[in-house]
Amino acid sequence: MTGTQMDSLERLKQHFAQRVINQARQLLEIWQNLHTTQWSSQELINMQEGAQRLLRYAERFEQQAHIEIAQALLENLAAIENNNNRLNSQFIETMTYLLQDLLQTGLRQGESIESVFLPPLVRKPILSFYRMMLKLKIALNNCSRFLCKLKYLMMRLRSLLLWPSVILR
Question: Which of 11, 33, 116, 156 is the residue whose CA sits 20 to 30 A from 108?
C-alpha cells in the first residue's frame, strides 16, 4: 500500500470509529434522561437497542473496551427484563457503573473527564427511603417538642389570666 492509501484507510477507520463513540454518547443521553422521567418498558427497549448498536459498531471496528461494556449492558438489561422490568438497587448501581465506564472510553482525544457530565450514581431506593424516614422522624420529634412547649406556655398563660380573679375575691 502506498502512503496515501494508508492515510485514507486510517481516516476511514477513524471516521467509522466515531460511530462507536456517538452511539456510546446516545446511550449516556438515554440514561441521563431517565433521571427526569419514569423507567418504563419503552426505556428498556431504547437502552437495549442502543446497547445492541454499540455492540455491533464496536465489533465491526474492533474496539474491545466498548464490546465488553456493551455485552455487560445487554446482560444487565436482560436481567431487568427477566425481573418484570422492575429496577432494583443492584441493577441501578450496575448500570450506572457501566455507563460511567462507557463515558470514560468514549472521551474524544484531548477531552478530560472533568469537562464531561458524568451521570450521577443513583442512590439505592432503600437507602433513600431510609433517609427520608429518618428525616420524617426528626421532623415529628421536633413537632412533638414544639407541641409540649406550646402546651406549657398555654398553661402558664391560663394561670396568669386566672391570677387576677383569685386576688379580687
Answer: 33
CB-count exposure of residue 68 (10 Å: 0-12, 13-18, 19+)? middle
Helix axes 64-82, 41-60, angle to 10 degrees: 160
Q: What is the pLDDT of residues 41-55, one digit of tens each?
A: 888 888 899 899 988
- Please name which of 51, 28, 16, 47 lies closest in space to residue 104, comparing C-alpha atoms: 28
C-alpha dihedral (51, 122, 124, 142), degrees to nearest 10: -160
Pick from 25-39, 72-86, 105-119: least confident: 105-119
**CA–CA separation, 66 vs 160, rounded Å?**
78
